[in-house]
Amino acid sequence: MAREELIELVTRLYEGQGDETEQDAWLQTLKDSVADPRISDYIFWDNSNPRLTPEQIVDKALAYRLIALGGPE
User: Using CA atoms, how far apart are residues 10 and 5, in angstroms rounded to an integer?
Assistant: First the structure.
């Protein structure tokens, strides 16, 4: 999913658009589109001051990288 599409979904959720079913679907689409497991926390539980913008939320989620903790090869 393109960055702009992700921003649109985050904006909808951020602004409380849609009904509960739509919001659940949008959130699931976001979760399926980025590796960051905290994407919903950034939208609903952001305690930073000022709050992150939808663009900052998407950029933060897209920047997330899993760290492989492998043993000896």
Answer: 9
Among residues 14, 52, 57, 53, which one has the least CA distance to residue 33?
Answer: 57
Question: Which pLDDT tens digit goes with each residue over 12-28?
Answer: 999 999 999 999 999 99
Q: Can you tell me whether residue 72 is helix, strand or coil?
A: coil
Q: pTM, whole model, 2 decimals?
A: 0.84
Give, in order, the Cα–Cα distances in Å from 60 to each of 6, 30, 71.
12, 13, 29
CB 27 within 8 A of CB 42: no
